[in-house]
Design brief:
Order of helices and strands: HEHEEEE
Shape: globular
Largest sheet: 5 strands, antiparallel
Number of helices: 2
Strand content: 25-35%
Structural class: alpha+beta
Distance between the termini: 21 Å
Helix content: 10-25%
Length: 100
């Protein structure tokens, strides 16, 4: 996961909507960042997971299809990317975890 996520974030890929590499991520106390996502954009968490380095990765999306990618380490949360026209996909996994 780390080998995949780190180059992805640093390269600024995923449909060309990542924050430019020269732009610093927006960081702050977790509660402040999450309250802003809810109040300003109506975004709620739709996916979360623990990264190999121990950070907590979350993807937020609104009913208007805006989205934000946040990573929390310790008490601080950083927004690494945001965009529009997010789409959710329903996935089913078989017994051995294979995608069907």
């Amino acid at each position: 996961m780390k080998r995949f996520l780190t180059p992805l974030l640093s390269a600024g890929l995923v449909a060309g909507v990542f924050v430019p590499a020269s732009a610093a991520p927006v960081c702050g106390p977790r509660a402040v960042i999450l309250d802003a996502l809810r109040a300003r954009h109506g975004e709620v968490v739709i996916w979360s997971g623990v990264a190999a380095g121990g950070g907590y990765v979350e993807l937020y999306q609104s009913q208007k299809r805006t989205w934000s990618l946040a990573v929390t380490t310790g008490r601080d949360t950083c927004l690494f990317s945001a965009g529009e026209d997010g789409q959710q996909f329903l996935m089913r996994f078989g017994r051995a975890g294979a995608f069907l």
